[in-house]
């Protein structure tokens, strides 16, 4: 039986190689003239022979179907190095099958796969040949570096042959440098890989090639690295604000919105002071009480051409003033509000009393990863479900803004959450007018960061009413994901226990 399993694995691997190198899954589709002159190896394992033969056939196909002897194959298409990792044990692979099954919600699958691969690579394991295509099709692009080892030499070799989705997932630093320099098809994942592991090299390539790239390439690169920018990216992003193409300027402005100490943030802070006017209350009061009763007035300011350089999108044909107010409010850093109100406590009070300003400040806190401001705004967001917005009020762009802003603010809180915060979030979802939508929006955060009290709340939940089916389905999704995360974390621990 063991021999039969081995043959099955070999032929499955043979099919994968044929699919990757020749674009088909049938070994008989290799053109006869492509194989002329190829000295097929006669020794070694079946897998090694398949690898070498496929490499030779691929080289012949790349050279207009001219035949090549095996020893003349381009080294880049040669069989990969010896595999240092062993196949994961059956129970770990069974867990991987569960993650790949249709029972796991698509939004949760990438995170679970990344966690499994990271833990497996740490343990010295890799996936089996039978899991290659499914895993490579569903992992994030690019796959985080710490998870790549568990793909194994077979997966890395297949990806190196240029299969679009696989190559994007496993792109390495040398390939990323090449793709970024030429502005190739993989420029987005190449930029993410470089800014994740070698940002200095990314800066060097950008300085050399920026003027040679098309507007589309420049836009893609700036957009791809937007969530990864650091203070040393400010100089080239400020230069991108003066780009001749609007799309590039808008992408650069969005990226700079992540840096609360950037020059753009300082300009937005100055605009906030001119835009927002606090009118003190007429009645007696002092301190926080006085600030809480203050009236906020927004100045009717139209942006100048110089102001529009810092915009994250093109101005609308109508409603220019309201649009610009939203741009400023959603980008002003915390110190601008403190300068305006006098203290962080006063800022919290003013924002809590004015929902449109609260939503805008929450977006700025999330973009700038300002955990201090986010912590102050979180209770006000959890205290309501929707903003009582009067007609014509200024709001930052977005769909269900209140729910989105609460999600963004909660994402800044690392897990495991405290029992109090976990309970507050679950209660907020349960009392929402659309509990299924609310719970679904928070599902990934609850599955990965909520404390142990969540399991008790989910087990005791008895959904009723119009949204009962959707709520029950989301509860099952969260419970399954949490169970899988726990199983992955104990995958190695259980084997090391005496």
From TrEMBL:
Protein name: HEAT repeat-containing protein
SUPFAM superfamilies, per database record: ARM repeat
Coiled coil: none
Pfam families for this protein: DUF5691
């Amino acid at each position: 039986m063991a021999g039969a399993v081995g043959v099955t694995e070999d032929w499955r691997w043979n099919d994968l190689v044929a699919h990757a190198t020749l674009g088909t899954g049938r070994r008989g589709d290799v053109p006869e003239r492509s194989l002329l002159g190829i000295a097929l190896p006669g020794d070694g394992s079946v897998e090694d022979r398949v690898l070498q033969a496929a490499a030779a056939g691929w080289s012949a196909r790349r050279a207009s179907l001219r035949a090549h002897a095996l020893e003349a194959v381009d080294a880049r298409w040669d069989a990969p190095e010896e595999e240092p990792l062993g196949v994961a044990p059956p129970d770990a692979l069974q867990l991987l099958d569960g993650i790949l099954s249709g029972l796991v919600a698509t939004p949760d699958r990438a995170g679970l796969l990344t966690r499994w691969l990271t833990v497996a690579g740490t343990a010295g394991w890799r996936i089996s040949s039978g899991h290659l295509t499914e895993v490579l099709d569903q992992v994030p692009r690019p796959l985080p570096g710490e998870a790549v080892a568990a793909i194994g030499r077979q997966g890395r070799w297949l990806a190196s042959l240029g299969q679009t989705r696989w190559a994007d997932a496993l792109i390495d630093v040398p390939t990323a440098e090449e793709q970024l320099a030429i502005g190739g098809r993989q420029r987005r994942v190449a930029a993410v890989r470089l800014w994740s592991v070698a940002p200095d090299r990314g800066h060097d390539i950008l300085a050399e090639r920026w003027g040679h790239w098309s507007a589309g390439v420049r836009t893609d690169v700036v957009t791809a690295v937007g969530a990864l920018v650091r203070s040393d990216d400010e100089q080239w992003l400020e230069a991108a604000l003066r780009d001749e193409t609007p799309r590039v300027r808008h992408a650069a402005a969005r990226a700079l919105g992540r840096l609360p100490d950037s020059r753009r943030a300082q300009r937005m802070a100055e605009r906030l002071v001119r835009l927002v006017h606090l009118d003190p209350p007429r009645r007696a009061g002092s301190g926080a009480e006085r600030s809480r009763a203050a009236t906020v007035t927004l100045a009717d300011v139209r942006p100048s051409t110089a102001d529009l350089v810092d915009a994250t999108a093109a101005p609308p044909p109508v409603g220019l003033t309201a649009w610009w107010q939203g741009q400023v409010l959603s980008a002003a850093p915390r110190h601008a509000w403190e300068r305006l109100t006098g203290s962080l406590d006063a800022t919290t009070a003013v924002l809590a009393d004015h929902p449109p300003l609260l939503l805008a400040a929450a977006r700025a806190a999330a973009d700038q990863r300002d955990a201090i401001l986010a912590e102050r705004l979180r209770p006000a967001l959890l205290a309501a479900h929707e903003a009582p917005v009067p007609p014509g009020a200024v709001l930052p762009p977005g769909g269900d803004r209140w729910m989105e802003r609460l999600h963004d603010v909660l994402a800044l809180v690392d897990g495991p959450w405290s029992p109090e915060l976990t309970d507050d979030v679950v209660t907020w979802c349960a009392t929402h007018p659309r509990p299924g939508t609310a719970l679904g929006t928070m599902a990934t955060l609850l599955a990965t960061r909520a404390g142990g009290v969540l399991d008790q709340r989910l087990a005791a939940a008895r959904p009723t009413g119009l949204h009962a089916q959707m709520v029950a389905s989301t509860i099952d999704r969260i419970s399954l994901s949490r169970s899988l995360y726990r199983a992955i974390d104990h995958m190695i621990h259980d084997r090391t226990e005496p």
